[in-house]
């Protein structure tokens, strides 16, 4: 069997990482994988050894950070057809059996599959508007209706996302599959140093990730002479970064925070920390949460989005209201004072490795594919 994967970008992001894990899982089943990237980038070099072939075909998104003008939207419609035609040609040339689009923001893979009369799967990793603050250029209801009509199956990555999309998609098309979350596994952290707390936040520095509440918590704790440190690992929205830095200066907590930028080995920073903090208000899945558990660290996660299906508060991690600074500060205060963390990290470690692994992910994906062919 030959499967063509449509990637949203040539960079290593959450959607692309899941797509890569899917490719490696399918490769182990003897499936020949092909990829269309929008442009050439370094990430392609990591993926290429696992592929039978790839091409770069630029894809316009049908979502953006701000609403495009009517004229621009009309012009872009033409590019969708042009790109779809190129994808159709690639499908014919390589005798592709099935197409998987690994994001909701690109329509051309689905249109190309329809043109070529091959099955298509839409693998959705995001809310789009709630988490990334994207705008549906052609309207949300209309766009989701097109997604529903242009595909054979729709996979979502969490129960939270499944519940969110149920009103928009046909029930027989919608499937929920967890990621495998391949990650360096370490033994659970049983003890930490008392009256000390090092925190790691992994992910893009952006408003949707809500890093500001972490700084509010540091400022709150400073009044009680409690001084946790936070290292932020990820790419940066420069405007939001400026807001964070300005606040840290005003609150007198600059020496407690640091920014590493995008890093190919974020787990090195996770291993140096006591806990991992996820503050997003609308996390579609929460890959970082599972990675924290597999690393044997304490996960502190917002109680919105998929957070509640990954963490049992006080048992496998801690949940907090992402709008409640005091609630987050109290959790950090408790961890600051304790030296025993095994009661959290050991059950979290077992849960993460039992629920999120390559075999479970591969078996679920293969079942969906077999139902399409």
Account of the protein in words:
Helices cover 42% and strands 17% of the residues. The protein folds into 2 domains: 2-179 and 357-372, Rossmann fold; 198-355, Glycogen Phosphorylase B (Rossmann fold), CATH 3.40.50.2000. It starts with a strand and ends with a helix. The chain is of the alpha/beta class and 373 residues long. The strands form 3 sheets. Strands 3-2-1-5-6-8-9 form a 7-stranded parallel β-sheet, sandwiched between helices.
Number of helices: 14
CATH class of the largest domain: Alpha Beta
- Looking at CATH, the homologous superfamily of the largest domain is Glycogen Phosphorylase B
Question: How big a fraction of the residues is strand?
Answer: 15-25%
CATH architecture field of the largest domain: 3-Layer(aba) Sandwich
Give the class from helix and strand content and strand pairing. alpha/beta
What is the typical, i.e. mean, pLDDT? Answer: 94
- At the third CATH level, what is the topology name of the largest domain? Rossmann fold
Strand order of the largest sheet: 3-2-1-5-6-8-9
Given as residue ranges, the uncertain stretches (5+ residues, pLDDT < 50) are none
Provide a brief overview of the structure.
By secondary structure, the protein is an alpha/beta fold.
